[in-house]
Write a structure and sequence with these properties.
Two copies of one chain form a homodimer. The first copy, chain A, is of the alpha+beta class and 725 residues long. Chain A has twelve helices and 42 strands. The first copy, chain A, has a six-stranded antiparallel sheet with strand order 3-2-4-10-7-8, with helices on one face. A six-stranded parallel sheet of chain A has the order 27-26-25-24-23-31. The longest helix of chain A is centred in the C-terminal third of the chain and has 25 residues. At the A-B interface, strand 20, helix 5, strand 27 and strand 28 of A face strand 20, helix 5, strand 27 and strand 28 of B.
């Protein structure tokens, strides 16, 4: 029997001084939220109010609650799924537990320690910060605390602390199930699951099929399931899950019972077709590492996005917060979410939802963009935390791969294959879940991160838009790429003071919400005003900024997702940066505004992720009057379902007129194979419009696509040329 | 007290039938050698006699010896450092031990099992062969047996079996030292060694400095040594070693004593200067993995070679066999040997010699050019074997890096970063020796293997010699590159029948000794007759073949070693393929003929590995009359010792005349920094000679270098051009 406690919390400046006074605490939650409520702090989401929370993370915070002895002589346990970050637990003033790390469950038996009523205290230490680090994410580089909370280009600096996951008192029978774990191995041909049951007491195990029928019953430590219904990801089959129950029988009665879910699947990373040809030349290096996902023996093109914290406060993560977001991923035809290592590992309900909806999870450890050290204390904490994470997440069939963390082998992190934290993570993943792939970081050799804007003003690719750049890139996986857009006027109204809303300016509120100075101090990311002015002229209204920015985001994302899919089989993964956001932003690369509001680009990506559709490869975004328009037609297909051939009409709509260019009769697509179609060519007229659209219209309307491109009449082209001279 | 046994050995066709008769066995050794001696088989090194040994590896072999009880009531142990490969041990017919794997020590207490005289038997199973594999190295791909024994392009097929390392009976006191292990960690600034002593009994520990003075004495499990004398590799300092003794005192007497050596050093793989700049372009991949060796905080350019089995029969490896070879490496200015994973892990004496002579060891596990499987049985054997290997080799300061095996991430192997054997090896190296770097295979990203001939006839680089190709390659490490040469007429006389010696032909003897059909069935590797004819004309005598082939080997190796050194700091390693050979070859890439006979190329490489010398970069090997000769001058320096500047005269010697081209006054080289000098340019005359030499002559003669190049008079050039049209 679980009992939630009535918690209060107070703060103090040092460890030895108790708080002056206590406030009501919400558990799970965060000390900052309780403090804000108690002291009537203004809403952190508005303007630059978030800065008022600065420094709260440097206090000691003490939670208090009263625990009562069981009235019917049951054993009493304190259980917490997560306390953030370093803490001590005291009972009636006596230390009973100390821990560093928010991802390792706490379970303490209090039975013989409590009086009829005892005071339970949890003393939360100040947030970990490397002493000599600047005030940024590098403060987190000696801890397992999510680095994103220290500030990121789309996340304010606000470092939550406190009890962040389910925490309760449990009264248990004298005998209860101490340990009951289920693992399995699938035979090479997937026709049999050998289930291994781990337990210490005499338990009665039952396994029920997805339809609820009892499949097997045993008191033994193993059983085999013939022809198990496998777990498939979205678009490839049903996410079948079996139910397992373990019953502890004492004196003929069920003294305790444990329910578990299990999904049988085999996930591998394999080398793509043709991947062994390179390298050719002597001296010869290695071939690319594998990044093609094979699920249950079937190559799956991984379509999805980078999942970030759905809230600044991890303590507010809940099934209610997760569910619409995971559902939107499923509805967007996605099959994978990369849970980015800058944020925290999610709560159980996230993984349960991913299991249920067939969303594969790329599970990353909490390391990102920092040089995590070969330091014995850090390695000890990482060892315990990572083992806790692996043991919890490996139970979920959706956990198809492990990753050490984000961008650790790049210039801004400077970790390497020799870094002990990554070698430790590889070791722990092997020990605890060796049949699930592990990569040390993203990107690895052959994979790419970026672009993050529609067009760069500097560097080797300056002046080329993303449609154009993607024509020549050849990577095995695009595991981050971003296209920013401004948020809608309705959202701006919720976060920017009224007198600043008309036009984005470098005020504190716009900067705080990532419109400016996000990526670089000088930059105008993520609002990209300079780029919008280059493309669409000066003196735009905010509504125009929103609409034009959204247009670029839509076409940019379509270009990358569809280009990645055309590069199959060498390329096997497309994950945009990023899926969601932790609060309302003024501008961001996300497809979805906080908490779960799809942007126009969400629907564009949804279309580009359809299993089968007519697509075209367009070499650039801006076209001039009189120019020869060219685009390759494709049928993109990553489905293994039976398909039929059909026809696609290509229509260019410009200046209100529809020009039918050609009809392409395409054959029946083979499973998970694209079809290359003809190249459309058409001399663009000189008309006084600013855009045109290419429509691919099929007899099967579900295959239709449209691409909206920018047009420059002759007069504008001349002006631009004159300006450039 | 150790007692060797009198062994005999016999063979049988199946496990249940005992041998008909027994022969004298040499231990350590190999069953094939005993059999050959007993049955008067001809010398396997001559002609194609080695083929007569085919099939011997498919028998069961039984060793027998008599063990006597201790006369003075001591405990009796059977100890073997290595039995090859799968075996059972029986005492008076009763199974007392079974094992698969030749690298895990056997120690069995027999005290309570033996009678006054007992029969000890070791039943050796047939060599492991994957049942469905072709008759080549892939037969070894499910075992930890060295793949090279199954046949390689420079190693005959002959798969040794039997007791291959020290094996004896040891009579011990009732109490003896069960376990005494020494490990250490160095402080970040290298000023302190924290020594950890592992033991179970009460031991008195003493540590003696390299000069023999007692440094510390303790009964505790740790001690610190301030300012330890560090172990340095050849060319960088002294290979300082401390001596550790552990004494077990029983009743005031030393009941047992153990002596150990320990060398304090810190070895790291770091990213070279400038290595973080790449990649630049979006989408952005990772930076190159680190391969620059840093020893005791000092970047060391790794100069050396690939060490292969010094004998076909591992059982014959001995200090006497190793010593001249390791000494030659030291004398060649080398500081590292890559112990290639196709061959076996070496015996202790090899590693002791490397410790003493400052030769760093790149230690590879026994995996090479095969797809070792994710198979539970194989993983279990590899786990035990690799743990044994790591625990033995980690004690040696010379062991500066671990490597999973050879060329596993290439087309001919098809293992990947996800392969469980490699993930297991990474895990074990972390667990047992985490401060020593681990790479999964060679080559990894950025590193290169090859070339292996002076010029290729096919592929993208066809028609370009190795001097030319190396002008444009940019790799972080050249960890294999080979230049073959024919063996001397004296060696040919030892291995090729008299009537075949005059000119190499595709007879069985020449093929067996790798002159032909080595690399490919059709190829003329390693004698390279076609290439020699192209360069030096038809109708060469064998003496000319030897001399011309040696010339190419010398200049080819010089070009690669010196080019790699010029590519510093991006490149930090040059290891030629291969150093030595397991038997006398007719032609091979080795620098040293079996057992330890330096070839001319040994001396060329010795010169190219000097710490400091005048070098030049020559863009090709063959020059024509009237052509403008060009070569860059360099001072190559990888020493940290104080240097002085000086001058280099450049002289071209052609047709018996010396032409002085220039004098370059070079400044004082900075530690471990090269100096770029001027480009020599000189119009070549038309003279009727076939070669010319460029001499770099310094005031300090130890810096001098010469390069011998091929020359074509105008007449020859015309003929060649005419032929090519």
């Amino acid at each position: 029997m679980k009992r939630n406690l009535e918690w209060k919390v107070g703060r103090s400046s040092n460890k030895s001084t108790p708080p002056d006074c206590f406030y009501t605490a919400t558990v799970p939650g965060a000390v900052q939220l309780d403090w804000a409520k108690a002291t009537n702090m203004p809403d952190y989401t508005f303007g630059d109010n978030v800065k008022l929370y600065d420094g709260l993370e440097d206090f000691y915070w003490t939670y208090q609650a009263t625990v009562k002895k069981s009235e019917d002589n049951k054993r009493c346990f304190f259980v917490s799924e997560g306390i953030d970050y370093e803490f001590e637990i005291l009972l009636d003033g006596k230390l009973i537990h100390a821990q560093e790390g928010m991802f390792s469950r706490v379970e303490l038996e209090l039975t013989d320690k409590i009086k009829s009523e005892s005071l339970l205290e949890i003393l939360i230490f100040p947030a970990p910060k490397r002493a000599d680090a600047p005030v940024d994410r590098s403060q987190a580089d000696h801890s397992c605390k999510p680095a994103v909370s220290y500030g990121w280009d789309w996340h304010p600096r606000l470092i939550p602390l406190g009890i962040w996951d389910e925490t309760y008192i449990e009264y248990r029978n004298a005998e209860f199930i101490q340990n009951a774990d289920v693992t399995y191995t699938l035979s090479e041909d997937l026709s049999r699951a050998d289930v291994k049951l781990e337990f210490e007491q005499d338990l009665l195990w039952k396994i029920f099929a997805p339809d609820g029928k009892l499949v097997a019953e045993t008191r033994d430590n193993k059983l085999a399931i013939e022809n198990p219904l496998l777990w498939y990801c979205n678009g490839q089959g049903e996410p079948n899950m079996y139910t397992v129950t373990a019953e502890l029988i004492v004196d003929g009665e069920v003294a305790d019972c444990k329910h578990m879910k299990i999904g049988f699947r085999r996930a591998r990373l394999i080398v793509h077709d043709g991947g062994w040809v390179e390298p050719v030349q002597f001296p010869k290096s290695r071939s690319n590492p594998p990044i093609t996902l094979e699920l249950n023996g079937r190559v799956v093109f991984a379509k999805g996005a980078n999942w970030v914290s759905p809230d600044i406060f991890y303590g507010r993560f809940s099934k209610e917060m997760y569910e619409p977001l995971v559902k939107l991923a499923k509805d967007a035809n996605m099959n994978i979410l990369r849970v980015w290592g800058g944020g925290p590992v999610n709560k159980e309900s996230f993984h349960e939802l991913c299991d249920e909806m067939g969303i594969m999870v790329w599970a990353e450890f909490p390391l990102a963009c920092n040089k995590y050290p070969d330091d014995e204390h850090y390695l000890d904490v990482l060892d315990v935390e990572s083992r806790s994470i692996i043991k919890r997440l490996r139970k979920h069939p959706s956990t198809v791969m492990w990753c050490g963390g984000n961008e650790l082998f790049n210039n801004w992190s400077k970790m390497t294959d020799q870094s002990l934290p990554l070698r430790l993570l590889g070791k722990n993943c092997y020990e605890l879940d060796k049949h699930t792939p592990f990569i040390p970081t993203s990107p690895i050799m052959g994979m790419g991160h970026g672009n993050y804007v529609f067009e760069y003003f500097e560097g080797a690719d300056a002046g080329r838009d993303v449609l154009n750049i993607m024509q020549e890139r050849k990577m095995t996986a695009y595991t981050e790429f971003g296209m920013p857009s401004p948020s809608s006027p309705e959202i701006i109204a919720q976060i920017i003071p009224e007198n600043e809303r008309e036009y984005p300016s470098r005020t504190s509120a716009w900067i705080t919400h990532h419109a400016f100075s996000a990526w670089t101090k000088e930059g105008d990311c993520w609002i990209c005003l300079e780029l919008l002015e280059k493309y669409f002229g000066k003196n735009l209204t905010y509504k125009q900024i929103y609409e034009c920015g959204s247009w670029l985001q839509c076409e940019g994302y379509k270009a990358i997702f569809e280009s990645a899919r055309r590069q199959k089989p060498m390329c096997s993964m497309a994950l945009n940066w990023c899926y969601n956001e932790p609060w309302l932003t003024a501008a961001n690369n996300s497809l979805i505004n906080y908490p779960a509001l799809p942007k126009p680009s969400y629907y564009a990506v949804q279309a580009s992720c359809r299993p089968v559709f007519a697509s075209c490869s367009i070499p650039k975004f801006t076209w001039n009057a009189g120019e020869l328009f060219e685009a390759e037609l494709w049928i993109l297909n990553d489905s293994y379902d039976n398909q039929t051939g059909g026809s696609v009409n290509v229509v260019i709509e410009i200046n209100g007129e529809r020009h039918q260019l050609l009809t392409w009769d395409f054959p029946t697509p083979e499973p998970n194979k694209n079809i290359e179609g003809p190249v459309v060519r058409w001399r663009l007229p000189d008309v006084d419009v600013k855009e045109f659209t290419i429509h691919l219209e099929s007899n099967d309307k579900s295959l239709n696509s449209s691409y909206r491109l920018k047009f420059q009449p002759a007069e504008v082209v001349e002006e631009t040329n004159a300006m450039n001279v």
